[in-house]
Every structure is written in structure tokens, then in C-alpha cells.
User: What shape does this take?
Amino acid sequence: MSQAPSKNPDDPFSGLLLPMSAWKALEDAHIDNLQQLQTMASVIDQIPDIGPEVARVITDRLGQLTTKKSVRVRLAFPKQLERKAAAALST
Assistant: This one.
């Protein structure tokens, strides 16, 4: 069983970096978009040619995909206070 990520430009699951064997099994099961895959996630191990290891990879990657969030952090440095303190020390 090949575990190399799919290099097919037509792969609808390219963001998941699925093994080629998983991609072929999903294609054979007529699952051709991410929404269908997410709907079938609970029974993914019942699809022919998808063993428990590949099913775990698919569900893990789906979980990672759905939990990706952007976090913005604003850092505030008290530069004005440092300058005032340095000026006060020098006088």
C-alpha cells in the first residue's frame, strides 16, 4: 500500500495530503468532494479498500483541517515608557 501523498492536480482532497491508496478508494466509492468526505467520516472504515490505518489517517487529517484557525496576536511594547525612564536616569 502506497503512503505517498497524492500528486494528482485533480485531487479534490489535496489539502488533506492523503495517501494515493486512500484517494483511489474514495474515487472508487464515488466520494469526490470534501463535503461528502466529511459526511462519511464516521463510516469511512467501511468503504472497501480502506483499512483501519488509512481510515485513521483520513479522520485525523479531516480533524486537523476543520480545527485550523487563524490567531492574531497584537504585541504592545511600552517604548514610550522606556524612553522616559532612560531620560529621567540621564538627568
Notes: The two ends are 75 Å apart (CA to CA). Confidence is low (pLDDT under 50) at residues 1-6.
